[in-house]
Amino acid sequence: MMVDTASSDKVGVKLGMWLFLYTEIMLFGGLFVLYAAYYTRYTADFIQGGKSLDLFMGAFNTIILLASSFTVAGSITAVRRQKKKMALGMVFTSIVFGLLFLVNKYFEWGHKFEIGIYPGSQTLKQAGHGKSIFYGLYYVITGLHGLHIVIGMTLLSISFYFIASNRVHAERYVVLENSGLYWHLVDLIWIFIFPLFYLIL
């Protein structure tokens, strides 16, 4: 009986990716549980902290990531249909969306630093323990998410190169598929982050 080793390898790589994504979910899940615990204790401070964040910027970044999920999914479809130029365009657009997200986050963080709102600042020390915890979680969670955006952009860049060099094509696209899975997870995590910090009630 012949074994399709190529198919087995593909299944193994995808399984490995799903296991890795599970660890990422556990990581952010733990942080969300920590957030919930402190929110219960410092509800008023968390609400005031959330109101100080830029809702427009948060919503804009949400739209950016949702659009990038569409382009990543479109790139996989394009590869499967042997439309190389379209696939390259979709992946490149996704990378640009990721960069735009980071630029927006840079300006958002920069504004907070300018007005003295950052971990260990005198402004937060005077604001009370609850607000210090809120902003501490804000910087840790959004910062960690930003790092994942960078990793996702790196994976998409590798996929772009592989598509351009014909190492990813209609018969072999697991690298792009796994990069897409990772990117979708990053987007999904932001869908939870956005209401927790920007729409808090």
Give a short overview.
Helices cover 85% and strands 0% of the residues.
Fold and architecture overview:
- With 201 residues, the chain is mostly helical.
- The protein has one domain (5-198): Four Helix Bundle (Hemerythrin (Met), subunit A) (Up-down Bundle).
- It is 85% helix and 0% strand.
- It has helices spanning 5-41, 43-51, 55-80, 84-114, 122-127, 129-164, 174-198.
- It is elongated and about 60 Å long.
- The chain starts with a helix and ends with a helix.
- Residues 1-6 have low confidence and may be disordered.
The SSE string, one letter per element, is HHHHHHH
The assigned structural class equals: mainly alpha
Identify the quaternary structure here: single chain
- The number of strands is 0
Q: CATH-wise, what's the superfamily? A: Cytochrome c oxidase, subunit III, four-helix bundle
How much strand content do the residues show?
under 5%
Shape: elongated
Number of helices: 7
Largest sheet: none
CATH topology: Four Helix Bundle (Hemerythrin (Met), subunit A)
Spell out the key features of this protein:
mainly alpha, Four Helix Bundle (Hemerythrin (Met), subunit A), 7 helices, disordered N terminus
